[in-house]
């Protein structure tokens, strides 16, 4: 009797591992043919074991967390492979989450109860505008997304479908006025769509006899999404394309900011300008024209307070009006205004960024926080909103309750701050607005024009043209 030994060497995360496999042979009748068969069998077992262990170790190496040093040792192709593996894994997780959400949604229904299909053919339709507000702090933006249900549109269409106001989104002739991002709120978002009507076409002028759309939807929507009013419009009216202008407000505490300098700076943005340096360029989706017209812009203290008598706890707002805005245009603008308010930059830096001849590339800087931003108003011609006063009173009551809880928290925190501030002798303790500029703040400030520049618009266009993601005509390049 003797033992068949095999030594297997593996490399795992930069470390070498030796695996010893032992197989006993020669037991039983020691005939030559039997011994040969046992050796062959042992070799086969060793081969199979080594193959299995190699797969296990490779899997461990792939699923293990990589260190920075390990990633730096990989070449470009290996890094690409790793990115593709991570993207594939993310897609698997997204599908699992979606599947789990669908299962939970099905569980919410009453067991054994089959909902009777609604016969839309028995009803007429009408095209309307719906105005509503939402507090977007806990949502992932307005537009519906594949990987989450926590969007305004998801809840809105869930309510519209459940109430049988619409048959489907695809058949609803739907448009939205604005598409707010994650965390952004709106006081006056407007959508247009075809909805079910209980009136004959010739009697649809009697709005008080129509379905109470706001009341119906508010019974199904989350408390922080409320329908305020509705208005009948022609079938070709679009909440998006027929909007005359959109107005945003960005609320912030004064802190130690120079409000006068910020107001002076934002005035430079009024008029027709190329805002490629004051937005996030979305070239991947074919956006190559960054010219926009700002109708009005101002930075003021809320409630017309006196600037000289104000404190760091007094609230201010940026109000800006335009027919259309670019992606993150307001948050990028506010990020620069905060630097001006801190006296890190002069107000004229806005002029330099808008001059694409002398500044064709955007300097790297951080955007402002998303929470203070609100799509405040959307304007339309010849639109008279119909308001159900009783329903509006319910909405006011709900919003007052939100205000009460939040002002109680705010007052409690402020009184705690007052007590603590009395214990220090420091002259400047106005840090209230410091949290609004995202990213890590360097101890030594580097002026915007001396920072590293982002890739130019022309280079970005060439990059995506090479990938054949889209084609751009020369007339579109600005």
Describe the structure.
By secondary structure, the protein is of the alpha+beta class. The strands form 2 sheets. Strands 3, 4, 5, 6, 7, 8, 9, 10 and 11 form a 9-stranded mixed sheet that branches. Strands 1-2 form a two-stranded antiparallel sheet. A hairpin with an 8-residue loop joins strand 4 and strand 5. Helix 6 crosses helix 7. The C terminus is likely disordered. One of its GO terms (biological process) is mRNA pseudouridine synthesis. One of its GO terms (molecular function) is pseudouridine synthase activity.
Summarize the structure.
This protein is of the alpha+beta class and 478 residues long.
Helix content range of the residues, please? Answer: 25-40%
User: How many DSSP-defined strands?
Assistant: 11
CATH superfamily of the domain at 243-384 and 436-463: Pseudouridine synthase I, catalytic domain, C-terminal subdomain
Distance between the termini: 85 Å
The rounded Rg comes to 32 Å
Shape: extended
Main sheet properties: 9 strands, mixed
H/E series: EEHHHEHEEHEEHEEEHHEHH
Which runs of at least 5 residues are low in confidence (pLDDT < 50)?
473-478
Structural class label: alpha+beta
CATH architecture of the domain at 243-384 and 436-463: 2-Layer Sandwich
Strand content: 15-25%
Tell me the name of the CATH class of the domain at 243-384 and 436-463.
Answer: Alpha Beta
Task: Give the quaternary arrangement of the chains.
Answer: single chain
Q: Determine the CATH topology of the domain at 243-384 and 436-463.
A: Alpha-Beta Plaits
Keywords: Isomerase, Signal, tRNA processing
Protein name: tRNA pseudouridine(38/39) synthase isoform X1
InterPro entries: PsdUridine_synth_cat_dom_sf, PsdUridine_synth_TruA, PsdUridine_synth_TruA_a/b_dom, PsdUridine_synth_TruA_C, Pus3-like, TruA/RsuA/RluB/E/F_N
Family: Belongs to the tRNA pseudouridine synthase TruA family.
């Amino acid at each position: 009797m003797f033992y068949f030994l095999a030594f297997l060497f593996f490399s795992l995360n930069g470390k070498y591992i030796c695996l010893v496999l032992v197989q006993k042979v020669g037991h039983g009748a020691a005939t030559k043919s039997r011994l040969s068969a046992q050796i062959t069998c042992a070799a086969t077992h060793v081969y199979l074991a080594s193959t299995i262990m190699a797969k296990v170790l490779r899997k461990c190496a792939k699923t293990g967390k990589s260190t920075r040093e390990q990633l730096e040792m990989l070449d470009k192709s290996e890094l690409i492979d790793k990115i593709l593996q991570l993207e594939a894994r993310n897609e698997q997780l997204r599908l699992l989450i979606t599947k789990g959400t669908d299962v939970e949604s099905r569980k919410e229904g009453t067991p054994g109860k089959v909902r009777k299909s609604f016969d839309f053919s028995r009803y007429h339709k009408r095209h309307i505008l719906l105005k509503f507000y939402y507090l977007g702090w806990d949502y992932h933006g307005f537009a519906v997304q594949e990987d989450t249900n926590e969007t305004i549109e998801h809840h809105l269409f869930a309510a519209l479908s459940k109430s049988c106001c619409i048959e489907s989104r695809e058949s609803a002739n739907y448009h939205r006025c604005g598409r707010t991002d994650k965390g952004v709120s709106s006081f006056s978002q407007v959508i247009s769509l075809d909805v079910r009507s209980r009136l004959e076409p010739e009697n649809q002028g009697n709005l008080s006899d129509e379905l109470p759309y706001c009341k119906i939807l508010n019974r199904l929507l989350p408390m922080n999404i409320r329908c305020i009013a509705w208005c009948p419009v022609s079938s070709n009216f679009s909440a998006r394309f027929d909007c005359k202008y959109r107005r945003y407000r960005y609320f912030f505490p004064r802190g130690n900011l120079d409000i006068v300098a910020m107001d002076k700076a934002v005035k430079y943005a009024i008029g027709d300008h190329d805002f490629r340096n004051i937005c996030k360029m979305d070239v991947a989706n074919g956006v190559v024209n960054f010219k926009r017209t700002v109708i009005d812009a101002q930075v003021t203290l809320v409630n017309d307070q006196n600037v000289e008598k104000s404190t760091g706890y007094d609230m201010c707002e940026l109000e800006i009006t335009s027919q259309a805005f670019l992606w993150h245009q307001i948050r990028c603008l506010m990020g620069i205004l905060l630097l001006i308010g801190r006296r890190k930059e002069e107000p004229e830096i806005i002029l330099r960024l808008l001059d694409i001849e002398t500044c064709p590339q955007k300097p790297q800087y951080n955007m402002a926080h998303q929470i203070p931003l609100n799509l405040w108003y959307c304007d339309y011609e010849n639109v008279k909103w119909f308001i159900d006063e009783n329903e509006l009173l319910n909405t006011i009551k709900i919003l007052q309750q939100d205000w009460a809880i939040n002002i109680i928290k705010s007052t409690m925190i402020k009184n705690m701050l007052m007590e603590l501030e009395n214990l220090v002798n420091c002259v400047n303790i106005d840090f209230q607005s410091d949290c609004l500029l995202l990213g890590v703040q360097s101890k030594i400030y580097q002026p915007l024009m001396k920072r590293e520049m982002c890739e130019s618009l022309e280079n970005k266009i060439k990059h995506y043209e090479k990938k054949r993601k889209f084609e751009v005509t020369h007339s579109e390049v600005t």
